[in-house]
């Protein structure tokens, strides 16, 4: 995954783990007939990567979209 920088602090965000109790990996459901995700080639369940700003705590999720 390319480097991502916090839009507020301009420091490199760090990979982190986001979990929900009783749930394994996080992913997005993308089962759609049409729409932007289908046009991007995103499958029905796409894994998410969580990144955290070590300065302010901003957390962002990124879908692992194949190129």
Structure description:
The protein has 67 residues and is mostly beta strands. It has one domain (14-63). It contains one helix and four strands; from the N terminus they run ββαββ. The chain has one helix spanning 36-39; strands at 14-16, 27-29, 45-52, 59-63. Strands 1, 2, 3 and 4 form a four-stranded antiparallel sheet that branches.
How would you summarize this macromolecular structure in one to three sentences?
The longest helix has 4 residues, at 36-39. The chain has one helix at 36-39; strands at 14-16, 27-29, 45-52, 59-63.
Provide the fold topology.
Elements: E1 14-16, E2 27-29, H1 36-39, E3 45-52, E4 59-63
Antiparallel strand pairs: 1-3, 2-3, 3-4
Distance between the termini: 11 Å
- Give me the count of strands: 4
Q: DSSP helix count?
A: 1
Please state the CA-atom Rg, rounded to the nearest Å.
14 Å
Protein name: Small CPxCG-related zinc finger protein
């Amino acid at each position: 995954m390319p480097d991502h920088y916090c839009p507020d602090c301009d420091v490199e965000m760090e990979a982190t783990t986001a979990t929900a109790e009783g749930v394994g990996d996080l992913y997005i459901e993308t089962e759609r007939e049409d729409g932007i995700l289908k046009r991007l080639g995103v499958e029905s369940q796409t894994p998410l990567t969580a990144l955290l700003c070590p300065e302010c705590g901003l957390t962002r999720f990124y879908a692992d979209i194949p190129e």
